[in-house]
Amino acid sequence: MKKLILVLSLLFAMGAQAQNHNNKKTTQTEEKKTLMKQNIYQFKVKDIEGKEFDFATLKGKKIMVVNTASECGLTPQYEQLQKVYSEYKEKGFVIIGFPANNFGAQEPGTNKEIKTFCTKNYGVTFPMMEKISVKGDDMHPLYHFLTEKAKNGFEDSQVEWNFQKFLINEKGELENVISPRVLPNDNEIIEWIKKAS
Predict the structure, then answer these.
(1) C-alpha–C-alpha distance, residues 1 and 52, integer Å
(2) How far apart are the first and last CA of the chain?
(3) pLDDT at res. 196
(4) Among the options 36, 72, 74, 94, which is catalytic?
């Protein structure tokens, strides 16, 4: 009888341990899901004129975030960016430009100089933000989100050069990372903009 009680006690203890393990696993899974649910709407940044820009105002829109530069071989992409923006801005799509001086010192200007350059040379009307850093020790928190899987739930990546494009869906989640050399009017990007959710 004592043996039976001992065996039953052991089985009960093992069952409780297994239940605890399952509970831990469930909690960890929920924590992972919570991490993966982070989105771009948590960020507020400054626009090129120093005013606050809240990404939460873009809920329900597809967003392309692109780091830009005025003295780069890829700078003419401003032209295609503006064309794509003009064509699709009334269809729930927006481009957000972030000037950055991280590559070859190709964006040395002040925010005011950058704004003048973009408007005068390319007629840019899509929202431009203040100059930030998109890599290194002083990387902006937004770019930590865009490049770290633990934050974006999609993939780890790094900004390779000026004009890298991050595609954000209508829920504010990162959905694709496009190489700097792929033009903004590339078929892959246009199809993504036009695709219904």
Answers:
(1) 75
(2) 65
(3) 77
(4) 72
Locate 145 and state its tokens: 């989100």
pLDDT band at 67 (very low <50, low <70, confident <90, very high): very high
Choose among 128, 25, 23: nearest CA to 81.
128
Q: State residue 30's pLDDT score.
A: 54
- pLDDT, averaged across the chain: 90
DSSP structure string for 70-122: SSSTTTTHHHHHHHHHHHHGGGTEEEEEEEB--STT---S-HHHHHHHHHHHH
Please state which CATH class domain 40-194 belongs to.
alpha beta
**72 is a catalytic site residue:** yes
Residue 65 confidence (pLDDT) = 98
* The pairing of beta strand 165-168 with beta strand 174-178: antiparallel
* Beta-bridge partner residues of 161: none
- pLDDT, tens only, 50-65: 999 999 999 999 999 9
Rounded Cα–Cα distance for residues 53 and 43 (Å): 9
Dump the DSSP string for 25-67: HHHHHHHHHHHHT--GGG-EEEBTTS-EEEGGGGTTSEEEEEE
